[in-house]
Amino acid sequence: VQLQASGGGLVRPGGSLRLSCAASGRTDRVYRLGWFRRTPGKDREFVGSITWSRGDTYVVTSWKGRFTISRDNAKNTVYLEMNSLKPDDTAVYYCATAPQADGFYDYWGQGTLVTVSS
Fold it and tell me: Pairing mode, if any, of strands 77-82 and 67-72?
């Protein structure tokens, strides 16, 4: 599975941004696609996920209400919609896929940088 994350950039506090993760290759082996982020000096954080076939979503409580995950099956693309962005949301955001419900994430995209600053 190949993953291409995009959509990052500079946004002012309170603004919105939509990240995309386009999947190609053996997407028939994907059970779940997750979004993660990494900020300098912190461990990688799990943001949320969506199941590839059913579209069941989960967003970590910390971001529930501000972040939404959705998908476009026709485009093999998953989105991370981020609203009311804060400077603390500045990070490199990654998407990754897991082949099983309880499996680890084995394929990763290259990451896209989101900078929230005035």
Answer: antiparallel
What residue type is 55 in one-letter code? G
Dihedral sign, CA of 16, 30, 52, 34? negative
How many Å apart are CA 73 and CA 82, to the nearest integer? 20
Which of 98, 102, 84, 118 is CA-nearest to residue 35?
98
* pLDDT of 65 above 80: yes
**Amino acid letter at 114?**
V
Residue 80: predicted pLDDT: 98
What is the pLDDT at residue 66?
Answer: 97
Residue 101 has pLDDT above 90, yes or no: no
Mean pLDDT, range 64-92, rounded to an integer: 96
The span from the CA of 40 to the CA of 46, in Å, is 15
Q: Please provide the distance, in angstroms rounded to a whole number, between the alpha carbons at the two ends of the chain.
A: 37
CA-nearest of 46, 61, 43, 60 to 98 is 46
pLDDT recorded at residue 102: 83
- Structure tokens given for 87: 């400077």
